[in-house]
Structures are given as structure tokens and as C-alpha cells.
Amino acid sequence: MSVVSKLPAPAAPPPAQPSGTVTLYKDAGWVGSPYSVNTRDYLKDTRHSIAGSSLHDEATWIAFNLPVGTVMTLTDNYVAPANGNVYDLINCGRVVDLVGTGQTEAVDLTKINLNDCISAFFWHTPDLSAGAIELYESSAFAGNRTVLFLSEWGAGKTYALDGWYIKDRASSVRWPALVDAQMASLFNNNDGSGAAYGNIKAWGSFSEVSNLKEVGFNDAVSSFSWNNLLPKQSFVKPVDIVVPDSVGKRVSDSLHWPNDSSAVQKQTLSVDVTDEQTTTVTATNQYTAGMQLSYSLSAKKTQGTNEVTKEWTLSVGFVYSHTDESSLTKTQKTTLVVTVELNVPPYCIFDATLWVQLGQLPPGTTYKTTAERWYDQELKGSVYDPANGYWKRTESVTLQMGGTLAVSQTCETKESALPEKPPVTAP
Question: Source organism's superkingdom (predicted)?
Fold first, then answer.
């Protein structure tokens, strides 16, 4: 689990809190009548006002106990979400993000420039394993803090902080929660133009800048973007797919052919199962990119029979240039036409049926494979490859699959004698 830095806490330990609870205290020392909220009583991803309560604009200390993965964001102002996005902090004023650890924690609001300011809150469950960036109002990670939970902001786009309290105020930044190949940039202008600080990355020997003045970027943050470092080369090992044949329907083509000639005649049976062969693949991968699928088919005939077993192999490719595609799920149909050519003996009635058995992959069937990727940066776990001048790393890829693929085919034939023709009477 990635780590978001803890905020300054009072010297006095907080009273134990039940799970899911955030309690506001008016004065230092955990005294006075507190005001508590519990996440189970309030809708997720919804702004809630505490106007009219005893602690509206009165809170000094906070005690909280939130499950790991749950975050409650408290704000200076109560406003409707911009464009319906509860995470967009435009006009919210100063904020505090309480990140759940599964135990009772505390925050001293006087130390983060938020004393007697809390007016509203919302709770959400950002994916902390997807990384976060912490922006601080003052140098040395002091003053008010805004956390950018990257799972709430898609990769490869620039997001303006117009109307946010932290805009043009950030003087220090931390990113210990970035993972693996993540990187980010802070920009001077809303559209991502102008001066920038672009050395925020998950690898390297440091994960913070205590004074943005030292890198020429103090009080300048107006927008941000993030992405994953894209590989220069990549090869994903194909996956062999075992498709159960115990379930799934059969499709067929039949032939009834009287051959009243003295010569062998050729006939063809054909079954198109393309419409039935639909699969959905979801990749678990740190990249936000498009995905390509391709299936190959090998056949294995059982000796002494006409039965042919189909063995499928899935090849996966990632379209790293398509960083605007946030989905790693792809559904596609796979073309397959099964054709059998038959020799119909002379002077017989010939019946034949070609059956193709479809197998059903249960939704969420999991396959694991590996990817070899080469980068122009030395990521953790990579080894320099002098053959091409990049750092190579072997990474795991998990695929979840569901759908239908052909698994076998059989051809049943039957011959019967033609009925005798009546004798021809001479005129």
C-alpha cells in the first residue's frame, strides 16, 4: 500500500474512535462537546455541510479512525461540486485530507492553517496504490496541504487548479506514494504551458522538494499532469488458453446428397462460428493504454477418429501511444470458419453433419504471464541492456478473461444405397 504523509498531530493522544468515525473538537486538549460523523451515515462522493452544527467554523483538533483506503476531505467552504466532480476543489478554500490507516489518528488544525474553518466534508475511496502527490502551502511541508489522488485524475491529461486554494501557493511538494513507473509535472499555467517542474517520479533517490524556491517554482503551481514512463520496447509472452468443453452450445452444417453417378463427387460442409466467438479480456497492468488482442489456433487430431481439438493462444499487445484510453478491457469477436471437404461415393445417398463445439470461459478466468519491457530510465528492478542501450525489466501481467471459443469439431457421415430404378420398358 502506498503511503501518504501523516499531518501534524496534537501532543496529547486522541480519544479512541470507532471505525469510520471523524470527530471535531472545539478546543485543544480534547475537551468540550465534540461533533462526530460516521461514513456509514453519509453518502459517498457527496458534499455534506455542517452549517448550523455546534462546530461549524469552530474545530481546532480532529480525531479520526477510517479504514485503509478511505479518505475524508474536509473543506473551508461548502460549495456544489464543479461539473459534478466532487474531487474538484474549486472554491472549496483550504482543505484537509484524512487518510485512513485502520486506527485512531489525530490532526492539529492550527498547524495546517485550518483552525476554526471546517464547514463541509465528503468521503471517498481513491485507489491509494495508484499514487498521490502532496502539495503544501509553505516550505518544509508546512501550512495547508492538498493531496492529488491520481486514481481520481486520468493519466495523460492536464488538469487546471483554477479556483483551488493551493493554486499559486504551493511552496513544497512530496510524492512518496508514487509507484513503479509513475511520473508527474507541475505547470505554471492552467493549460500546462509555461514554466514547469517535471522531476516528480517514482524512481530515483528522493521523493520530495522541501522548498520549491530552490528549483525556481515557488508559488507557481497552476495545473498538473501525470503518466507512466512508457517503454521503448515491449514483448508480452503469449498465453495458452484451456477452454472447458463441458458447457457451451454446438453449431452445425448438414448435407444430404444423392450421388447416382459412377464417379466420386466432392461436397463441402462449412460452419462460421465468428459471431459466437466473443471474448472479453481485462489486463491488470500499471499502464493506462489501449490493448490489442490476437488469437492463434492450433489443431490436434485424435488418432483413429475425425475429432479435432482446438488449442487457442492469446497474444496481448499494449498500444502505449494511446495514453488517452483509460480502459484496459477489450471485447472482440474472433473469426473462425471450419470447413470440411468430403468425398461422396458413387451410387449412394450421402448424409453428413459437421459439428463445432463451443467452450465457455467463466467470467474472470485468470491467466498470468510476463512482459519484457525496455526503458530509457533506470527503473527499480531493471538491468542495463547494452544491445539496445535501454534498461530491461521483466514484469508480471495478469489477464482476466471470459467468453466463448471453439474447442472441437466432429464430422458424422452416413451412406445408404440408392433405391433401385424401375426397369425401362421397350416401346
Answer: Bacteria
Whether the Cβ atoms of residue 127 and residue 154 lie closer than 8 Å to each other:
no
Q: CB of 364 within 8 A of CB of 271?
A: no
- Cα separation, 38 vs 179, whole angstroms: 31
Tell me, what's the pLDDT at 1?
45
The CATH superfamily of 21-228 is Crystallins (2.60.20.10)
Contact 60, 26 (CB under 8 A): yes
Q: pTM score > 0.90 for this model?
A: no
Residues of the chain with CATH 2.170.15: 233-416
Q: Phi/psi class of residue 57: alpha, beta or left (left: φ > 0; alpha: ψ in -120 to 50)? A: left
pLDDT along the chain (427 residues), means of 10: 85 96 95 94 97 95 97 97 91 98 97 97 93 97 97 91 97 94 95 96 95 97 93 91 78 92 93 90 70 79 66 84 62 90 93 91 88 93 94 92 88 88 59
Quickly tell me which residue has 519491457 as its cell: 373
User: Which parts of 285-326 are beta strand (E)?
Assistant: 290-301, 308-319
77 vs 380: CA distance, rounded Å: 42
Which of 33, 20, 71, 75 lies closest to 51, judged by CA?
A: 75
Largest CA distance in the chain: 127
Closest listed residue to residue 225, CA positions, set 271, 269, 193: 193
Measured between alpha carbons, how far is residue 345 from residues 133, 256, 257 in Å? 77, 13, 10
Residues 6+ apart with CB under 8 A from 179: 2, 129, 130, 131, 202, 286
Q: In which residue are the cell numbers 503544501 written?
A: 136
Considering the chain, tell me which residue range(s) the CATH 2.60.20.10 domain(s) occupy: 21-228
> Residue 130: helix, strand or coil by DSSP?
helix
Closest CA to 48 of 118, 110, 109: 118
Which three cell numbers mark 266? Answer: 466432392
Q: Which residue is it, cell 456544489?
A: 80
Q: Which CATH class is domain 233-416?
A: mainly beta
